[in-house]
Amino acid sequence: MKYLLLGTALSPISLFHTKPKSNLCFNFKFKPSISITNMSLPFSNNNKNNNNQRKLPILLFDVMDTLVRDPFYHDVPAFFGMSMKELIDCKHPTAWIEFEKGLIDEVELARKFFKDGRDFDLEGLKTCMSNGYSYIEGIQGLLLALKQNNYEIHAFTNYPIWYQLIEDKLKLSKYLSWTFCSCINGKRKPNTEFYMEVLSHLEVDPVNCIFVDDRQKNVEAAIEVGIRGVHFKNVNLLREELSLIGIDITTDEEDQ
């Protein structure tokens, strides 16, 4: 496996993301007119693939800053010896997005990463990123509980082929499948077509999917197509939200 440079849904104002985050705890707010209606719907039995052995609902997780710490905001500027503002001013405005969508490869990314075409230590940057990856506090316990309760879990993430760097370090595939990555599908959240491709691949009604993401706009896009959306703030609130929906997150230890 090649090591890769990681990020999730990235924004025009940052190397990877559009909005800065000061910590791992995000404001958790649903639009009442949307989320309450959406969350109260019963799970449907009208699946395209009517397999009685399949446990519903299916869980879809964003990765960066939802399951895994994103090292960009603190580690990457320090790697380049820049402030965040300096880095944003110097980087190419679309190179990372193109890489996330699989439109360019690693060689091309390195060539156009900076607007002025300057050389940099790409392998060193990947090492910096890898060193910064870690599970969000408490998320492993939640993923384990979901796995023990036989839920089907998929990554649904804006990420380049370098998502393998996270896998190599954290072995996220112990809990979920890296099924829906922008580099494979050629689309990024919140593009509606990406969500529709997910539903087509899974062969389930939208109401039978729950999507968790730290970015409100991605959650709202999911709700627009009928998927149940949960805006991630922290693990404790996520556990509460999943329990309210009816997701079993008890573990063998808790049952004893």
TrEMBL record:
Gene3D superfamilies: HAD superfamily/HAD-like
Name the UniProt record assigns to this protein: Uncharacterized protein
Organism annotation: Lupinus luteus
Annotated InterPro entries: HAD-like_sf, HAD-SF_hydro_IA, HAD_sf
